[in-house]
Every structure is written in C-alpha cells, then in structure tokens.
Amino acid sequence: MTANTSLVTGASGFIASHVVQQLLKKGEQVHATVRSTKNKKKIKHLLDMQERWPGKLTLFEADLLAAGSFEAPMRDCSVVYHIASPFFIENRIHDGQKEVVEPALKGTQHVLDSVQKCETVKVVVLTSSVAAIFGDNADVLEMKNKTLSSEYFNTTSTVNYNAYPYSKVVAEKEAWRIYKEQTSPPRWKLVTINPGLVLGPSLSPTSESGSLSLLDQLLRGQLFLGVPDMWFAIVDVREVATAHIQAAECPDSHGRYILADSKTHGFVELARILRSITQSSRIPKNKIPNALVHICGPMLRLSQKWLRLNLSIPFDIDNRPSLDQLKIVYRPLEETLADHYRSWKSAHSVSH
Q: Boundaries of each NAD-dependent epimerase/dehydratase domain copy (predicted)?
C-alpha cells in the first residue's frame, strides 16, 4: 500500500491545499502536516476533505523548527511534497534571518533529514520559487536572451535586501546539497517547482499567502489612483499543484521547473482585467508615472534601489520544461483572476 501514500507539508497553505485535494481526487492516501490540529478554523477545508474522502486523509502536527517532527507523518510514504515555508511581504520583515531564512532553511533540513531515515521515500518535490532564480527583475536582463531560465540561481538577494527571495535560494540550495550527498545511486530523487506569483482560488478561508496582498490592496480599492509599472511572472495555483504531482509521477522529471506564463504580465493589465470583472471604478486602469512612484516609495516602504531594479522591466520566461515534461496546460489569466476574485470576495463576506 505504500506505493500511493504521499506526505504534504504545510497542508493548510494556499498551494498545499490544492495539492492535497488533487491527490485525493486521484484516490491516493495523503498524510498532511499542519501546525496545529486544534486550530479548527484554519484547517476547516482539510477537515471537509476528510469527510468527502473518508479514510484517505490523515492530519499530523509538525513544526518546521522542530527536528524529528516529520518522522511520524512520513512513515510509509513514497512521495514527500515539501511545501511548508514562511511567506512574508518584504516590507513587513523586521528580522530577515529569524523570520524567513531560518524557518525556510531549518524546515528543509528537518524534512530532508527525515527523508534520509525513511526508506520508503522515493521522490521529494520541493516547492521553491522563481525568487530562488532571480531577486530583482533587472537580474533577468543579465541572463541569456534576457529570458528567465532554471539554470540560474539568485545571487543578488541577501538577508538585508530581498530577504524572502534570499530565504528561497538558501533553502533550495541546501536541498540540492543534501540530495547530492546521498550514496550513489541515490535512493530518492529531488525535483523543485519554482512558481512565479501564484494566483487563483484559495481553498482555505484564512490563507495568509503574502502573494495575495498586492491584489488585496487592488481589490479593496486602495490603489485607485493607479498602479506602479511592475511586471510579474504569474501562474494559477491549480497548475502549480498539478506540476507537483506530475513531477512526482513522471519518471523522467528532474531538476527545476519554472511555473509561469512565457511572458510577464504588467500590474496595469491585472488591474484592467479585474476592473472589468468587478465592474468597480475603484480599480484603476492606468499606471502611475515612475517618477511619482519613486517619490512615494518611502510611504510604500519600497527602497529606491528596489524601485530602480524592478519598475518597467518585463521579461520572457522559459517555461518549456513544464510544458514538455510535466504536460502543464496554462489557463488564461482572465480565468485565474476571475476565480481569484470570487474566492477573495467570499472570504471577505465571511470575515466581515
């Protein structure tokens, strides 16, 4: 029976909930870790899944910072999806080392230490990020053909500048180091999924995913004067979940997979699509001139350096491995944003 038991870490999170749901739909046994099984509100969507797929989903408590806490949940699993990691909005991080780098790094070490001890595990799929490949949009201009590619690692972020991207590159590099330390031939395979900005419907009513706060401000009408000329690599959460599962199931999957459209999308494009979906005049359809954004930078807690290296820099993305090897079909951005908005709206009607 061990063939189809998977462990999903951080299961109550935005991406992980979708991975759990897709695995259950395929009829698999899932072990899922959460910080606390007592926080019923936060794990309600997982409890609902337990009812819908009786006997298929087992919840465990585990703490990224506690060594050994993943050993019991991992027992008899053949695949480990390590998705749990802290996510913060950059300008709200006070102590990068303590808030993001240590949990990301220690969490990866603790999960992979358990993998080393657990003989049944054959595949580890690690959720990384495009942030492990580049820190600022300007970094991509230095890459071959000015195209984001999985052969690069982020070298410009530090614990004091772009601490979240730094935590992703540190954790991913550590995972590759531990993987390579196995005796040959390796018992378990490592694959990383490196998504862009992940949008789409949330299964969890309390998702605190930082990636959503920009859109949250947009949907609340806080950016009605206009949006900065920022560009994002974007992907739907459902494609990200599917990519995790395909990476585990495809015998030829290897290395790192960028999950995103082949081109970046401008913030103003997102705003215009959402304006037409919501019919709200509080959502702008115009960009704010860069000069003005630089002046307002301090109020947004964005440094001049960050603005200089990110404003008005779109780029291309090499997502072919995700298409060819993982057979991902990217849905239209309009559909992602419509579903994102619907889920945002229902979450806000619940909480207010």
A: 7-253
